[in-house]
Design goal:
Helix content is about 40%, strand content about 20%. The protein is of the alpha/beta class. The radius of gyration is 19 Å and the shape is globular.
């Protein structure tokens, strides 16, 4: 790919981020995504980074982590250019590790349907906040909230279709909580928590409040998640093998495989199909071709969605942060 093609590809990524992925979710990021796509100077700096470091969420979180402005696209671009010597090291040192506990609302129907208890194994676990589905409360549509008594986290989720919601007293029973991440985050570390806060999109106060509440749950739990450092392809087999006897190992991931090179992604899906475990994926369209091929109809293009699948078979479209669950007809 020549320099012009690389700049165009980077610009397209930011334009799609601003016009599709953040549309209706964060007006500030809508404006910033389009503004970055229109800035040759900032695009040149981004194009000089390793491919995995050019992603919109990483740039935007780095600027916010450093105290940069998000009130306008122009102000953001000007600040990022003027402070590039500070922004670049944060981008290189950090990773997009959005740890959205709200996604548990989309995972819950599948988790509750499996033989209990579960050995939860999260790929790309970040600080492990999605490893506590039994410690949160849930409210689907306008229904009554249910779940863990006294939990500071209540997750709302709008639904369509025949969602197999669990009975209020039938939350998943968790035998173990483990995960793998290239750079695990510690819920009790103030700097790690600040990075996670920087990854929440501006204007989403409910997500910000939920993050802080979920961090408090992780800090207080008597059986905290164990997150191992490493490459998912190198360590997933050992984590499945370590599941407690009598439990159902469940490997799951949300918006993770999109950051892997195609070869690594293919290696993971090949491995996971051969391991003695259940597999829940929640990834964007075009990430898992075999899953996409089984969709009953095309994914919507006017808004960001993920495809929820169990053992490679798609069951629903989901909102990127767990805000929607659109179950396919039976």
């Amino acid at each position: 790919m020549n320099a012009d093609e690389l700049l165009k590809e980077t610009a397209d990524d930011y334009r799609v981020f601003g016009t599709v992925h953040t549309k209706g979710h964060s007006p500030a990021y809508e404006r910033i995504g389009v503004a970055v796509a229109a800035s040759p100077q900032l695009l040149e700096r981004l194009a000089a980074l390793p491919p995995i470091k050019r992603q919109p969420n990483l740039l935007l979180a780095a600027v916010r982590y450093l105290g940069g402005p998000v009130d306008s696209g122009e102000a953001f671009v000007a600040w990022a250019l003027g402070h590039w010597q500070q922004v670049r090291p944060v981008i290189l040192a950090r990773a997009t590790q959005t740890n959205e506990a709200g996604r548990c609302a989309t995972l819950l129907p599948l988790l509750a349907s499996l033989p209990q208890p579960l050995a939860l194994i999260e790929v790309g676990a970040s600080a492990g906040l999605c490893l506590y589905p039994d410690r949160y409360r849930y409210r689907y549509d306008d229904g009554t909230a249910f779940g863990a008594d006294g939990s500071p986290v209540t997750i709302p989720c709008a639904t369509t279709g025949p969602v197999p919601l669990p009975e209020p007293d039938r939350l998943p029973r968790v035998a173990s909580r483990t995960g793998v991440d290239l750079n695990p985050l510690n819920p009790a570390d103030e700097d790690d928590a600040r990075w996670l806060e920087s990854l929440v999109w501006p204007g989403q106060q409910a997500r910000f409040d939920r993050l802080r509440a979920a961090l408090s749950v992780a800090r207080a739990t008597p059986d905290p998640a164990r997150i191992v450092r490493g490459d998912l392809n190198a360590r997933i087999a050992e984590l499945v093998a370590a599941a407690p006897e009598g439990s159902t190992p469940v490997v799951f991931h949300t918006s993770v495989l999109c950051y892997l090179p195609t070869e690594a992604r293919q290696a993971f899906t090949t491995t996971i199909r051969e391991l003695p475990c259940r597999w829940i994926s929640n990834e964007a369209p075009d990430v898992l071709a075999d899953v996409d091929a089984l969709l009953p109809y095309a994914a919507p293009t006017e808004r960001g969605v993920n495809i929820l699948a169990l053992d490679g078979k798609p069951v629903a479209f989901t909102g990127p942060h767990g805000e929607r669950l659109d179950w396919f007809p039976r």
